[in-house]
Specification:
This protein is an alpha/beta fold. The chain has a single domain, classed as 3-Layer(aba) Sandwich (Rossmann fold), CATH 3.40.50.300. The chain contains nine helices and five strands; from the N terminus they run βαβααααββαααβα. It has a five-stranded parallel beta sheet, with helices on both faces. The chain is globular.
């Protein structure tokens, strides 16, 4: 980003979401390479489910010690198999974890502001629309792909059966519905060059959104 002064603390908060195995992490990295400050909700969840975090204790108390590995770390594959087969348990896990995720996202944003950060802040999170947390953002960008590509990527990435992959896709809001919330859309159905082109277009639009939000900033001021 450009120097913090004289517009210290002026940020555009952007929610980056989409379906499972649609390539959000790749998109987030592309935005980061363009100077955006990116927060990864999946990494926050990973931290929350580690000892000695209190969230670990609450999850184990509810789901039982059968979700633990011998070293008492949570077996996320085992936990995933449980929650993607049972809506009630999935909602219970979300009720334990998501408030903590949002609190940590807010803390990281505040820390960024206190350090003099400005510009575009991107929060990469799969379930922000499902949980209603998308309302916290100035703009929403939805990453999507076609159904066959999504299924294939999920099977290969997670090493799971087509049936299990379908369960996990069905546990999220359908992509066509997520797209209704989008200010910007990025398709990852094509090649990497095509995806990069779309990211650049969205990035340029977000920079204009940032300037409009802080309309006193002179035209042409670089982020």
């Amino acid at each position: 980003m450009a120097e913090a002064e004289p517009h210290r603390g002026k940020i555009l908060k952007v929610g980056l979401t989409g379906g499972i195995a649609c390539g959000r992490s790749t998109i987030a990295k592309m935005f980061e390479e363009r100077g955006c400050y990116c927060i990864d909700a999946d990494k926050i969840v990973h931290h929350l489910l580690q000892l000695p975090n209190p969230t670990w204790k609450r999850v184990v108390e509810y789901f039982g010690e059968e979700i633990l590995n011998p070293d008492r770390t949570i077996n996320r594959k085992r936990l995933g198999a449980i929650v993607f087969s049972d809506r009630e348990k999935r909602e219970r896990l979300n009720s334990i974890v998501h408030p903590q995720v949002i609190a940590e996202e807010n803390r990281l944003i505040e820390e960024y502001l206190l350090s003099g950060g400005e510009g575009i802040v991107i929060v990469d999170a799969a379930l922000m629309i499902e949980t209603g947390s998308h309302h916290r953002f100035d703009k929403i960008t939805v990453v999507y792909t076609d159904e066959q590509t999504q299924l294939k990527r999920l099977i290969e990435r997670n090493g799971i059966s087509p049936e299990e992959a379908q369960k996990r896709i069905a546990a999220q809001l359908p992509l066509r519905e997520k797209l209704l919330y989008a200010n910007y859309k990025i398709s990852t159905s094509g090649n990497l060059q095509d995806t990069e082109r779309q990211v650049e277009e969205v990035f340029q639009s977000l920079k204009e959104d940032w300037r409009r939000k802080f309309s006193s900033i002179p035209p042409g001021k670089n982020l």
